[in-house]
Design a protein that fits this description.
Blueprint lengths: L3 E5 L2 H10 L1 H9 L3 E10 L10 H8 L4 E4 L5 E10 L4 E6 L2 E7 L5 E5 L6 E3 L4 E5 L4 H17 L10 H16 L4 H6 L1 H33 L4 H4 L6 H21 L5 E2 L2 E10 L5 E10 L2 E16 L4 E8 L5 H10 L1 H21 L2
Parallel strand pairs: 7-9
Antiparallel strand pairs: 1-2, 2-4, 3-4, 4-5, 5-6, 6-7, 8-9, 10-11, 11-12, 12-13, 13-14
Helix pairs in contact: 7-9, 7-11
Length: about 350
């Protein structure tokens, strides 16, 4: 089920959104974007409306977004919508970056992101999405060129900019991402990455459960009669370790052959770290195994270069795997998340010490 989009006039929410995305908002206003309205994207029942693991997605997004949980257990994330009157374009900053949207009178919709995401090129739906990882200015320049090229080929932009029109574009993108694709596409296209991503998700989720239950399994092995672990879930220690040490390499191998990165509720594969190429035509970024958006293991580094699509005059980033990992950016990524690693490690060790003390 697609999320619901609604305008919001709550002053407190507006102040929090402005504070959260201050740098992006200032950068967009410097590019002559103007504020249109504030809006919410709502998932019912803490995200369960988007699947049984939707709440994990809400949890993963909470540090990066302005989120409020309603009395009916709906989860709403709040954003500011800005517009460029000159190019009839919407833009909304959020946790991962921002998206530019432009629609045309013939139903064509073009979207540019300044972060790595799933590209879309669908001539039937007239929906095109191009990830352009980098600065706001670079992504906006790409989008401007794209809109100008399509206008020069006879397409006319929709000049009436409103929240309702923007919501139609957002629903169109959401519906496309949620609809099933053909079997042939699933074998060789982005959906193939989704299917592999599902297996990776399952393996990483199982590994996380096994790590969480490790101390209970160890305590039960040392003292089977211990009251503390007798009634809580655990599995035999040795089989659990074998499954754990198999799940990580399997996930890593599948991520190597996966065509692009894909997340289910913040678990799967994701790109971190970007280095511009000397010629300015692209970037180098590394695919990681991630759990709730936290990078766990680097998988492979890629070079992203732009190639022009003849059918839409769109520059699409093409991924070229590198022979070696980009070590400098990997160190920076680990360092950037160091406090999260420390908190998780200390919490896990603390849980272990408490469990073992109860069984002594």
């Amino acid at each position: 089920m697609a999320s619901e989009y609604q305008q919001t006039t709550n002053i407190e929410i507006q102040d929090r959104v402005r504070s959260k995305y201050r740098a992006s908002i200032d950068g967009l206003k410097a590019l002559n974007f103007q504020e249109l309205c504030f809006f919410s994207e709502t998932a019912r029942a803490l995200g369960l409306s988007n699947g049984p693991l939707g709440p994990l997605g809400v949890l993963a997004a909470s540090p990066k977004e302005v989120i409020r949980i309603g009395r009916d257990l709906s989860a709403s994330a709040f954003f500011l919508l800005l517009v460029s009157r000159e190019y009839d374009t919407y833009v909304a900053p959020f946790g991962l970056g921002l998206k530019f949207y432009t629609s045309f009178t013939d139903g064509t919709c073009v979207i540019t992101t300044n972060f790595l995401s799933q590209a879309i090129h669908d001539d039937v739906e007239k929906l095109y999405k191009s990830p352009q990882p980098g600065s706001i200015e670079a992504a906006w320049k790409h989008h401007q060129t794209w809109v100008s090229d399509l206008t020069a080929r006879g397409k006319q932009t929709k000049y009436h900019l409103s929240f309702d029109e923007f919501a139609k574009l957002a629903y169109k993108e959401d519906s496309y991402m949620l609809k099933p694709k053909s079997v042939s596409t699933a074998m060789f296209g982005d959906v193939g990455s989704m299917l592999i991503g599902g297996v990776i998700f399952g393996a990483l989720f199982a590994a996380a459960i096994l790590i969480l239950l490790f101390w209970a399994s160890l305590a039960r092995t040392l003292n089977p009669a211990c009251w503390y672990v007798r009634d809580i879930g655990s599995i035999p220690l040795l089989p659990g370790l074998l499954i754990l040490f198999a799940a990580i390499p399997i996930s890593w191998f599948l991520a190597r052959i996966q065509k692009t990165a894909f997340l289910y509720d913040g678990i799967g594969t994701m790109f971190h770290g970007q280095t511009a190429l000397p010629d300015g035509r692209g970037t180098i970024s590394t695919k990681w195994l991630v759990f709730l958006h936290l990078p766990i293991l680097p998988v492979r580094s890629y070079q992203f270069v732009e190639e022009v699509s003849d059918s839409s005059a769109q520059k699409l980033p093409v991924m070229r795997p590198l022979d070696q990992l980009h070590g400098e950016r990997i160190k920076e990524t680990y360092w950037r998340f160091k406090w999260w690693y420390a908190i998780i490690a200390l919490s896990w060790i603390g849980w272990g010490v408490w469990t073992l003390l109860q069984c002594m």
